[in-house]
Amino acid sequence: MTDTGLVRQENQDAYSVQTMDSYTVCVVCDGMGGTNGGQVASGIAVETFMKEMRSLLKKDMTASQIEQVASFSVSQANEAIHEAAEEDPSYECMGTTLVAVIARDDLAMVCNVGDSRAYLISRGGIRQITRDHSLVENMVERGELTPEEARHHPQRNLITRALGPDESVRMDGFPILWSKGEFLLLCSDGLVNTVSDQEILFEVIHSNDLDGCLSRLLSVAKDRGAPDNITAVLMMNI
Fold first, then answer.
1. What is the CATH number of the domain that holds 202?
2. Percentage, residues of the chain above pLDDT 70
3. What is the pLDDT of residue 36?
4. How many CB atoms lie within 10 A of CB 59?
């Protein structure tokens, strides 16, 4: 599900879901950088990341090997965005977040740069896997803000790490084991800034209408103003 929201003029989010041999690879990017730059950056990131993953991902890789492939793919996406910005002055300082999952059987490698998130959801609850690379997350870790205060802080959109602005970037990788019936949710901050973790958990696990749960979460976000683009990809281990 992806939507422009109620305030922004264009959707600068991008996403892709692809099957690669025994893997399912999903990626969500939230672009930044002016009228067109964010949309360009997120598009380049998704296209480059998926191209590199398809080229390098091999059957029966270990978690460490998958993480190395993902890290290289992120670095190539970063380089492509950075070069495009240098070639066109109107794209100066454009960038994007990235969150991705490479899933196979009971193993999933989650990786992120920026503040787009991944959650593991089951009947036991909802757990954020990724750590936001953001100013307010740093403040939460220092005890200066509560997580709830961070959701409404005026500087909540200031991120400390992104693809594009710098010549190199470091991603965080999170290998996880997930079981049959569990879910992985990837989303841009437009969702989590308007909808709570418990509301996400309820819609995914307890609504008895899995096909419509993302649409209902989008409706909740719009009821609360939807000031940003909203994108989410939901995966279930079957």
1. 3.60.40.10
2. 99
3. 75
4. 9
Burial 150-186 (b: 16+ CB within 10 A, else e): beebeebbebebbbbbeeebebbbbebebeeebbbbb
Q: Please check the confidence at residue 65 and state whether its pLDDT lies above 70.
A: yes
Range of the domain at 165: 2-236
Contact between 17 and 2 under an 8 Å Cβ cutoff? The reply is no
Q: What single-letter DSSP state applies at residue 210?
A: G
First to last CA, the chain: 20
**pLDDT band at residue 148 under the 50/70/90 scheme:** confident
Strand, helix or coil for residue 99: strand
The count of structural domains within the chain is 1
Considering only residues 60 and 36, tell me which one the structure prediction assigns the higher pLDDT: 60
Q: How far apart are CA 26 and CA 35, in angstroms?
A: 26
What phi and psi values does residue 111 have, to the nearest 5 degrees? -140, 150
DSSP state of 106: T
